[in-house]
Amino acid sequence: MLKQTPLYELHVESGGKMVDFSGWSMPIHYGSQVQEHHKVRQAIGMFDVSHMTVVDVEGEDAQRFLQTLLANDVGRLKSEGKALYSCMLTEKGGVIDDLIVYFMNKDWYRMVVNAATRDRDIEWINQQAQSYSVTITERPELAMIAVQGPKAEDYLAKIFAGETAKAIRDLKPFNAVICKDIFIARTGYTGEDGFEIILQANAVVQIWKKLLASDVPSIGLGARDTLRLEAGMNLYGADMDDSVTPLESGLGWTVAWEPETRDFIGRQALERQRANKPKAKLVGLLLEDKGILRDHQKVTIAGVGSGEITSGSYSPTLGKSIAFARIPSEAKIDCTVEIRGKILPVKIVKAPFVRNGKSCI
Amino acid sequence: MSEVPSDLKYTKTDEWIRLENNELAVLGITDFAQEQLGDMVYVEMPDTGISIDAAGECGVVESVKTANDIYLPVAGEIVAINTALSDSPEAINLDPYGDGWIIKFKPANVDELNALLDAEAYQSKLQAEDH
Fold first, then answer.
1. Residue A320: which CATH number?
2. Measured between CA atoms, how close is A73 to chain B, in angstroms?
3. Interval A94-143: pLDDT, tens
4. What is the complex's ipTM, to 2 decimals?
5. What's the pTM?
6. HSE-up (13 A, CA, CB side) for residue A317
7. Residue where a domain terminates, one of A184, A209, A233
8. Contact between B42 and A292 using a beta-carbon 8 Å cutoff
9. B115 vs chain A: nearest CA distance in angstroms?
């Protein structure tokens, strides 16, 4: 039996095509994935992401604990509400998960981790927390939605009004605020302005209905995937897992090397890899020809070696196919990809492919 | 409920076939198939003039998330492809039995088409898959 979010009935009513997503019945689209993608880029759309796992870390050691648990440094979060993207690593530097951590106050951090990795994450976090004075609390009773797109602020301010509306308008990117029991963060997974909202199950149904009544379209997980790929954002399980490090996954920027005394889990392995130069890197690929790049297609760089596409799709915004691929570090610009026996030229490009509605390539 | 026109023949792999005259047949994918695949973004079609064996691959339809092979149910020669699909693959979503046709072919033996599923049999196949 698949798990359902509090919005399940509303998805079905809206014509959502429900699929199994890591044990959850979630909408992949509500008719047209491509149209949903365009709506978010051009105006607004809302996603149910209640399947994601919210974990609160509380206690006097909260900061010290997270400075060990995470490869990025929560010590960089100086003002309340500030968010940080980080990987959580094994001792060998392999990526257990990627997550967002919010600094709520000195005794409370909130993390949002992936649904697919939930069991292992919770077990790992609890195991690591044993020697710290912290309490780890998963919050399965909380729902989460993302309202994304250039018009997200206007629509949300209208729905909430009053004090909450002002908080939404004043909220800076990558910051969160709690207003009347509703957690609102200016974060997302689309490359557009937008908000992620964490709230109680009964409240989420009311908000979703109000947004529907204001003609905000529901967006499925299909468009969420093409939006994040265009935005140059990694997907755990596709672009990285525990067999690769952040340095091999385009995520070197999320590793806080300073201060050198901060001994986070995986640090020694990463330092060794950094000193010897990683053999592989994750890059963006663009196919100028017709055709679609897909996961696991082989990428060849003449005279250098080969690698593989980790996420490939059609880009609705560019009208071409784009991908992430893990390839040898020496690769420069030109490579080829094999699609059903045909060899096509592809270009290595710097992600993101699209930001704030516009092509970056 | 997906549309299954009564005057067409069908395959277990969700293609439809319409006999235009005694020697020419048209092939596309069914309404059910396009619904399952979602928004079409690319169609790969064979060269005209080539002959393909029964159950041979005669193209690929790609939606945003997946690629799906299409098969010629009987041996035949490709006589035309729907070139409009290279710029407007969404025609398969909008009109799978009309503008969304994919290839025209000349069956080596037209009688072999009789062995394909009729609308009723295809409908039953869809219902069986639904359970």
1. 2.40.30.110
2. 36
3. 999 999 999 999 999 999 999 999 999 999 999 999 999 999 999 999 99
4. 0.87
5. 0.95
6. 28
7. A233
8. yes
9. 30
